[in-house]
Specification:
alpha/beta; Purple Acid Phosphatase, chain A, domain 2; 6-stranded mixed beta sheet; 8 helices; about 35% helix; about 20% strand; globular; binds zinc ion
Amino acid sequence: MKIGILSDVHANLAALETVLAAIGTVDALWVCGDTVGYGPEPSDVLALLVERKATIVAGNHDRAVATGEDLDLFNPPAAIAAKTHQRWLSVAERDMLAALPRTLETSDVTLCHGSLRDPLWEYVTNPKSAAASLALAKTAHCCAGHTHVPSLFRAGAQAQPGRVKYETPYPLAPRAFLNPGSVGQPRDGDPRAAYAILDLAAGTVTFHRSTYEVAETQRRIQDRGLPQILADRLGFGL
Ligand code: ZN
């Protein structure tokens, strides 16, 4: 079974379309939260993921847009974008976001946005916090997002966050905590969209980057009146 792993799309439709085209045909798409927030097209991104029958968990931005939860913890441009998305989305779209589970177990993998200790807010950036989540997981592996930095932590051997090699299959065994990075707002100094492919039959994960039209998303952010910094940062991958 081949699965496309996405996270932190953040309403960046141009990046999502590029990534879905690069992934091609897979057996499933799993999304580790923050589908909305920051970007120019929350509604279209939600619709495309629903059309592609993606399995989606909630991120902190999804909760903030759906229910206002933890909006006081957001920095000013993030809060402005979340409140703007609240206005742009229909009641049905906000209800859909509000109904997303915080964690979701599949046969081999548990999905969450942050961690299993704190599904909305913990940033897993080191082997110790990854091990704490795996200790709580009933499955062998765990997929998360939130840091916007591709990373892989395995029991016994870990790749450094942000230093994963691309187009290189990593074995998952015996247990892995992985983060595909961000489709719509990478923060590792590389503006290309990030994603991963899980091959459960082979027992591997492979990380990928795709170049998309950053300037197009920047233009849409400006046209729709979102804070300029949200356009600028995409150019730097920060
Ligand atoms: Zn995010």
